[in-house]
Design brief:
Number of strands: 0
Helix content: 40-55%
Structural class: mainly alpha
Strand content: under 5%
Number of helices: 6
Order of helices and strands: HHHHHH
Shape: extended
Oligomer: single chain
Radius of gyration: 21 Å
Distance between the termini: 73 Å
């Protein structure tokens, strides 16, 4: 009987640590100013894995490019040629990284993907 109680208490403790009183709230974008948006984005990105950082960066890029239909528009739309969190700060204010990524998935007509930093290997001559 005491093993069941100990197991139940341990399970409850784990649940609280991951989802409740002892767990940390996810970081959110503070979009009240350009400076606070950049600072909160930087702090948010630091807490993510490499894959998470990449997914967040691609999501921010995709949200920045929404509504841009050509290179001409990109060059002539203020801020579009330099996509950043500050350009979309009001739209993502209060969002977590996962919410920003989910929002970017609703953007239609734009495909953004990561490419390797090194060029692909060329076939060797025989």
């Amino acid at each position: 009987m005491s093993r069941k109680i100990i197991a139940a208490v341990f399970a409850a403790f784990l649940l609280l640590c991951t989802h409740g009183a002892f767990g940390r709230e996810p970081l959110r974008i503070d979009g009240t100013s350009d400076e606070s948006a950049q600072a909160s984005y930087t702090k948010m990105a630091r807490g993510l894995s490499s894959e998470g950082k990449m997914a967040l960066a691609l999501a921010v890029l995709k949200l920045n490019m929404e509504g841009i239909n050509s290179a001409y528009e990109m060059l002539n739309t203020p801020g579009a040629s330099n996509p950043s969190i500050t350009r979309i700060r009001e739209r993502v204010n209060g969002m977590t990284a996962q919410e920003i990524i989910a929002l970017s998935e609703t953007v239609q007509g734009i495909q953004v993907e990561a490419m390797p930093a090194t060029p692909p290997a060329t076939p060797t001559q025989q």
